[in-house]
Amino acid sequence: MNDERRAELAANLADVRARIAAACAAAGRAPEEVTLIAVTKTFPASDVRLLAGLGLTQVAENRDQDARPKAEATADLPLTWHFVGQLQTNKARSVAGYADVVESVDRTRLVTALSDAAGRAGRTLTCLVQVALDDREGRGGAAPGEVPVLADAIAEAEGLRLGGVMAVAPLGGDPAEAFGRLAGIAARIRDSHPGATVVSAGMSGDLEQAVACGATHVRVGTALLGGRRAIVR
Ligand SMILES: *Cc1c(COP(=O)(O)O)cnc(C)c1O
């Protein structure tokens, strides 16, 4: 059973790596410029362990109640945990206990909460500003005009490090157009924060467009792990 799953994950991983390599070649970029993050939400810790065995080091989850036990169950592995879901301030303390990167920072109150939590935990959290690329409410992300202020707040906060920006392409929109806008926002943030080099964009369905627009990190769930049983958001 485990061997079968391992073979399935290995084949999926080879496919995804080939897609990233092809997208990099088409964009004139080196494949090492793009980091693959496995989004393991709804899948068991045993899959995280198998992926780590296949050489993956970056893992993402979007719900604290699922992420925490998985991170604890795999604490012996050399993994970097990314939190990519909408985050309530009252979960900041829990997330700061295991996450290395919080990709979904979209308001100043969350910056304050994460800074406090990082201080208590004695850890440094890398934070990305999540940018809303559509006007739809409820999917998280700061309006593009709010991004510079949030970036400054993270950069100045004790215990936090500004990594860059993250976005999800709008539902039903043109991902290339949306990721192009994200690239412009990311470049403006780098003008004042040269170390904020991360552009986390692209998922199973649109990683090629994201790589073409300069993504440094792609977050891939379905194409690596298979279909999720329940749609969480
Ligand atoms: C689920 C999720 C992904 C991965 O999506 P897939 O389409 O399954 O690759 C990426 N980013 C975020 C924020 C997610 O919630």
UniProtKB/TrEMBL annotation:
UniProt keyword annotation of Isomerase present: no
Keywords: Pyridoxal phosphate
CDD domains with a match to the protein in the record: PLPDE_III_YBL036c_like (cd00635)
Domain Alanine racemase N-terminal: from-to ranges: 15-228
Cofactors: pyridoxal 5'-phosphate
Location of N6-(pyridoxal phosphate)lysine modifications: 41
InterPro entries: Ala_racemase_N, PLP-binding_barrel, PyrdxlP_homeostasis
Domain of life: Bacteria
PROSITE patterns associated with the record: UPF0001 (PS01211)
Role this protein plays: Pyridoxal 5'-phosphate (PLP)-binding protein, which is involved in PLP homeostasis.
Family under the similarity heading: Belongs to the pyridoxal phosphate-binding protein YggS/PROSC family.
Protein name (database record): Pyridoxal phosphate homeostasis protein
UniProt organism field: Actinomadura macrotermitis
